[in-house]
Amino acid sequence: MKKITKIILADDHDVVKHGVESILRQTISGPEIIKVSSVNELRNQMLCHEDIHLIILDIKMPGGNTVETVKNIKANYPETKILMYSAYEEPQYAINFIRNGADGYLGKSQPLQKIALAIKVLENDKRFVDENIEDEVFNNNGANDLSLSNILSHREFQILALLAEGKSNIDISGELNLQKSTVSTYKKRIMQKLNINNNIGLVDAYRTGFNNFVD
Q1: Whole-angstrom distance, CA of residue 196 vs CA of residue 115
Q2: Does a structural domain hold residue 29?
Q3: pTM above 0.70, yes or no
Q4: d(Cα 92, Cα 98) in Å, to the nearest integer?
Q5: Could you give the number of structural domains in the chain?
Q6: Range(s) of the domain holding residue 129
Q7: What tens digit of pLDDT does each residue of 81-98 get?
Q8: Which residues have CB under 8 Å from 158's CB, separation 6+?
Q9: CB 2 within 8 A of CB 80
Q10: Strands 81-86 and 104-107: what pairing?
């Protein structure tokens, strides 16, 4: 379990940032908190700071599409957790962001203390969704569908396909323009998601689409 202490707080409302920062400082020992107000600022901070543990991200930010922002961050920084923090609390919004790589979704009407709870859940590599919409979100997120397209992200599936072709981490890093360490992280996540511990199992899972493999 990796403790979350280095956080980017992305929201264009200062009062929201102030409230969230306050609860973070009350519940986390010595946090490093970086505050941004736009998608462009978020991108710049991700480039400037290594090893960001968590981004708390408003669903609607100036300067870009937040769904694409989530997808891009997860493609380039797969170990960074993303908690969407939104005034839009209908399940369809949470479903969309979870499907596109977000690790959690929390409505702004909920008590600030729930942010601390969400962080504890994310530290254990689990998804967090408020209990008011949890059942609907996960029932609609393909949780019972064991096909690879529902278990893996687009980038994870892309890397699995290359691994199944017999390519090494170095080969894949060159082909996809990723760091070798990033490819290794993706491979580890794929193995964890599919409950596989060797390359032969990865090849079998890819060739069978995983549905037949788990049966």
Answers
A1: 32
A2: yes
A3: no
A4: 10
A5: 2
A6: 6-139
A7: 999 999 888 888 888 888
A8: 176
A9: no
A10: parallel
